[in-house]
């Protein structure tokens, strides 16, 4: 794997988006620089290549961007966790609270395999509410949570507590303003 890439230099910080008081960490700056995007996938791959993982689950929308190349590189199935009304077939649903609102996630019933060890991937982990909702849907239907992975982590919003006792790995931490 190539040397460390300074992700902070390409992550755009946007004050008061999508609402007053939120500092939005914008990953489009990563996607605009192929070396930065490649570094994210390489590093995520390195963090999980020796683990026992059966599938990658990713959360709409920005989570898909990182999870898809990672799953493909690991040779693992990719499971899409989507917002309400986007998936065909029978779905399981779970509502949750976000840093700036509340939402519902869904997964197709057919995508949850009993005892499958699932790694949950997203672009950014803040309160951990989204990933916790996604993971609890899987757990309630017999799958196992292997851990959580994100590009950006905001530990001051206490995701570690929300996602305990599972391991959480992120590539770039921010500790508040
Ligand atoms: O840890 P949490 O407090 O749950 O927050 C993190 C979630 O919030 C963002 O998604 P958003 O709902 O903005 O959707 P998007 O990916 O469609 O932009 C981000 O992509 C994570 O999924
Ligand atoms: N501060 C933030 N920036 C970008 N995405 C987010 N999702 C939740 N909180 C966020």
TrEMBL record:
Gene Ontology molecular function, alphabetical: adenine binding; adenine phosphoribosyltransferase activity; AMP binding
Q: Where in the cell is it found?
A: Cytoplasm
- Indicate yes or no for the key word Glycosyltransferase: yes
Its primary localisation, in coarse terms, equals: cytoplasm
Which chemical reaction does it catalyze?
A: AMP + diphosphate = 5-phospho-alpha-D-ribose 1-diphosphate + adenine
A Pfam cross-reference name: Pribosyltran
Q: Which GO terms describe its cellular component?
A: cytoplasm
Q: Where is the Phosphoribosyltransferase domain?
A: 30-145
Q: Which GO terms describe its biological process?
A: adenine salvage; AMP salvage; purine ribonucleoside salvage
* Pathway membership: Purine metabolism; AMP biosynthesis via salvage pathway; AMP from adenine: step 1/1
Q: What is its EC number?
A: 2.4.2.7
Q: Which UniProt keywords apply?
A: Cytoplasm, Glycosyltransferase, Purine salvage, Transferase
| Record keyword Transferase present | yes
HAMAP family attached to this UniProt entry: Aden_phosphoribosyltr (MF_00004)
**What family does this belong to?**
Belongs to the purine/pyrimidine phosphoribosyltransferase family.
Q: Which PANTHER family match?
A: ADENINE PHOSPHORIBOSYLTRANSFERASE
Q: Tell me, what does this protein do in biology?
A: Catalyzes a salvage reaction resulting in the formation of AMP, that is energically less costly than de novo synthesis.
Q: What is this protein called?
A: adenine phosphoribosyltransferase
